[in-house]
Design brief:
Layout lengths: L2 H12 L2 E5 L1 H8 L7 H8 L3 E4 L2 H11 L8 H17 L19 H10 L3 E3 L3 H4 L2 H5 L4 E3 L1 H9 L19
Parallel strand pairs: 1-2, 1-3, 3-4
C-alpha cells in the first residue's frame, strides 16, 4: 500500500460513525432477521458506519448463542457461527479501559455504555429499556441511544445514511 493510499484509508475510517449494538440487536439482525433492523444492517455494511465490540460484549454473545433456540437446528447453528466469525473479522475489538460516566440501572448492560465510551461511538443501538433510559444523560456527551426503528427514522427516512460523514467521528451531535 502506498503512503497516499494509507492516508486516504485512514481519512475514510476517520469519517465513519461508530455504532455499538447490544446483543439483542445483533440477534435481531443475524438470527431473527428482523425487518426493522434491515436499514441498520445496511448502514453497517456502508462506508459511513462501523460497529465496535469488546471482550465483554463478545463473551455475552458467545454465552447467548449457546442457549436454545440458537443451537437447536444444526444448519442454523452453522449459519450463526459463520455470521459471528464474519462480525468479528470486520468489527474492531476495542479495549475498554475505564467505565463510562453514564450509569445503567442494569449492571449487565453497563458493558455497552463502557464500550461506547471507549470506541468513541456516536450511537448505541438497543431496545433495552434500562439502556434507553440513559439516553438523556449520555446525549449531553454526544452519545445517542436509539432503537433500530429510531435509527431507521433518523437516517433512512430522512435520506441521511451518511449524515455528517464529513465531520470527524468524535462524538458530534446527530440531530
Amino acid at each position: 500500500m502506498t503512503a497516499d493510499a494509507g492516508r486516504c484509508e485512514g481519512q475514510a475510517s476517520a469519517l465513519r460513525r461508530v455504532a455499538v449494538l447490544d446483543t439483542n440487536v445483533w440477534l435481531d439482525i443475524h438470527f431473527f432477521r428482523d425487518t426493522a433492523c434491515q436499514s441498520l444492517a445496511t448502514a453497517l455494511d456502508s462506508s459511513y458506519w462501523r460497529a465496535a465490540r469488546c471482550e465483554q460484549t463478545d463473551a455475552e454473545l458467545a454465552i447467548v448463542l449457546q442457549r436454545p433456540p440458537f443451537g437447536s437446528d444444526p444448519t442454523e447453528r452453522i449459519r450463526l457461527l459463520e455470521c459471528l466469525r464474519h462480525w468479528q473479522q470486520r468489527t474492531p475489538l476495542v479495549a475498554v479501559c475505564e467505565p463510562a460516566p453514564w450509569r445503567c440501572r442494569d449492571p449487565h448492560d453497563q458493558k455497552f455504555l463502557d464500550l461506547a465510551l471507549a470506541a468513541r461511538a456516536s450511537v448505541l443501538l438497543t431496545k433495552d429499556k434500562a439502556l434507553l433510559a440513559v439516553h438523556r444523560t449520555a446525549h449531553h456527551d454526544g452519545l445517542t441511544i436509539l432503537t433500530p426503528q429510531q435509527f431507521h427514522q433518523r437516517f433512512f427516512e430522512r435520506g441521511r445514511i451518511g449524515a455528517d460523514a464529513s465531520t470527524p467521528a468524535r462524538r458530534s451531535q446527530i440531530d
